[in-house]
Specification:
lyase activity; 28% strand; single chain; 34% helix; 12 strands; globular; alpha/beta; 10 helices; TIM Barrel
């Protein structure tokens, strides 16, 4: 059985790590290079770096900051934010990223997923999907959750898989920053309908939430930010608890 992955997320704005609630009310959470170093040494399985304002500000991800983070970590490192071309990905991989995450640009130009998978391999391509429930339907949102689309979460996820994405990072905007737990019903449905790994994001508040998302949500990995940034959960303690619950993890 594949081990479940624990993934700290560095949301970057103006070169600093930030964290909010429901995608707003951002507060400073520290220096991304220092945090990356801490998480790499603390037993994180992977690290995700999202330049959350790059798309909104119509600029590229901070390649120099990516390089500084990459120099500190010895675990797989995914970078997202403002990626819209094969050339963008080339630059990030050259600066130390192992994988890239695309979101808004993939919705606007779905062929981008095919092009990136063909050039770099599916294992290198994560598609991030931010969605919230509107009148009972999960609707995909863009530009850091600010712009709703007409896309249904599950339909878009299936298309993403067919186009060659290697995994999906699903963030529930309803759960984000609430610390009330992950959107496990939606995660379980994604897991049952797709054949690629699903990363759960949005809602982690305690170690039980991680247990629940692996058991109930059938997630392959769980991503969190504030509970790690503000030391509410230590990664090694979390992994030991998961192991005690017979959830396979890498210690």
């Amino acid at each position: 059985m594949l081990t479940k992955r624990i993934i700290p997320c560095l949301d970057i704005k103006n070169g600093r790590t930030v964290k909010g609630v429901n995608f707003v009310d951002l507060r400073d959470a520290g220096d991304p290079v220092e945090l990356a170093d801490i998480y790499s040494k603390a037993g994180a399985d992977e690290l995700v770096f999202l330049d959350i304002s790059a798309t909104e500000e119509r600029r590229k991800t901070l390649a120099n900051l990516v390089l500084r983070v990459a120099e500190k970590v010895n675990i797989p490192f995914t970078v997202g934010g403002g990626i819209s071309s094969v050339e963008d990905v080339d630059i990030l991989l050259q600066n130390g990223a192992d994988k890239v995450s695309v979101n808004s640009s993939a919705v606007k130009n779905p062929q981008l997923i095919n092009d990136l998978a063909a050039k770099f391999g599916s294992q290198c391509i994560t598609v991030a999907i931010d969605a919230k429930q509107i009148e009972g339907e999960w609707i995909v949102h863009l530009v850091g959750g600010k712009v709703p689309t007409q896309l249904n979460l599950f339909d878009w996820a299936k298309e993403v898989e067919q186009r060659g994405a290697g995994e999906i990072l699903f963030t529930s905007m309803d759960n984000d920053g609430t610390k009330d737990g992950f959107a496990n019903r939606a995660l379980a449905r994604l897991s049952s309908e797709l054949n690629i790994p699903i990363i759960a994001s949005g809602g982690a508040g305690n170690s039980k939430h991680f247990v629940d998302t692996f058991v109930q949500g059938k997630a392959d990995a769980a991503l969190a930010a504030s509970v790690f940034h503000f030391k509410e959960i230590e990664i090694q303690d979390l992994k030991k608890e998961l192991q005690d619950k017979n959830i396979p993890v890498r210690l």
